[in-house]
Design brief:
The protein has 279 residues and is an alpha/beta fold. The protein folds into 2 domains: 4-141, Rossmann fold (3-Layer(aba) Sandwich); 151-272, HUPs (Rossmann fold, 3-Layer(aba) Sandwich). The protein contains 9 helices and 10 strands. A 10-stranded mixed sheet has the order 3-2-1-4-5-10-9-6-7-8, with helices on both faces. The protein is elongated. The protein starts with a strand and ends with a strand.
Length: 279
């Protein structure tokens, strides 16, 4: 695989995600990039002698030293190539620039759990990155431990996928680990009868079938009115290692970003969530 970027703010949640990313990089023979962003200082009027450039240089050097400490720790257990990058300007733009310059495949971020549910997605770095939709993100919940991927659950509601490139991170993971992709369609016979299974595969599913042709995959259906609960139930029932989604395609992700009462669902995700680019 191409390089994996692990973002850290040195918190416990981020530290767990970094270790997950390192194990993922090691298992998939991918380089790892440890990335930290800090805000550029705005000098106060009553500090005329303050030199932002000097402050930034000193701060960046100190933060890079902290990343190198993490690098040394990771190299004790993983034989991988690790690069450390510190940036300060605009978090999202900087991250997207690094992703492009390094030709990365994935960005790994920590996802806070129920103890911090009000901040789990809304207003967080993860939420902002999802809303921009420019990068494939792997959100790792607190306590998640990496193990070889065997199954990836991919909820799909028959909307056309604009480009094969959107699915590339999903396919890369599946191919790297020979993981099975379960394409899950949840339907309600009253509200979404068109999604119910029938003898003929829909045009969007036929197109998706072709896009996933290099992977082991199959299609499943569940009659479930509560979409969010249905996905979580199926993830647990099928022992999925990752849940993959396209923002704004599925009502579950739309709910995560727009409805406060779904924060409990976001925090309840037991496995990493792969958020693909917005088409």
């Amino acid at each position: 695989m191409k390089p994996i970027i692990a973002c850290t703010d040195f918190s416990t949640t981020a530290n767990n995600a970094v270790h997950y990313a390192a194990a993922l990089a090691s298992a998939s023979n991918a380089p790892l990039i440890l990335y930290h962003h800090f805000d550029y200082p705005i000098p106060a009027a009553d500090f005329p002698g303050f030199n932002p450039a000097v402050f930034v240089d000193d701060a960046a050097a100190g933060l890079e030293a902290r990343l190198k400490d993490i690098k040394r720790e990771l190299l004790r257990t993983h034989e991988i190539e690790i690069e450390c990058i510190v940036r300060t300007f605009d978090l999202q733009i900087d991250l997207e620039t690094v992703f492009k310059d390094e030709q990365a495949s994935l960005v790994v971020l920590g996802l806070q759990g129920q103890s911090a549910v009000l901040n789990a997605l809304f207003g967080s770095v993860a939420a902002k990155a999802i809303r921009r939709g420019k990068l494939p993100l792997l959100l790792v919940p607190e306590g998640a431990v990496f193990h070889s991927l065997k199954k990836i659950l991919f909820p799909f509601d028959d909307q056309e996928i604009a480009s094969a490139a959107i699915l590339q991170p999903l396919c890369d993971l599946a191919i790297s680990f020979d993981a099975y992709i379960e394409v899950l369609t949840l339907f309600d016979l009253e509200k979404t009868p068109a999604l119910a299974p029938n003898s003929k595969m829909s045009a969007p599913k036929s197109a998706l079938d072709a896009l996933l042709s290099d992977t082991r995959h199959g299609f499943s259906y569940e009659n479930e009115a509560a979409i969010t609960n249905g996905i979580l139930y199926e993830a647990a029932r099928s022992s999925a290692d990752i849940v993959a989604m396209i923002p704004r395609q599925h009502s579950f992700l739309s709910g995560l970003l727009n409805q406060s009462n779904t924060q409990r669902i976001a925090a309840a995700i037991p496995v990493p969530l792969l958020v693909l680019e917005i088409p």
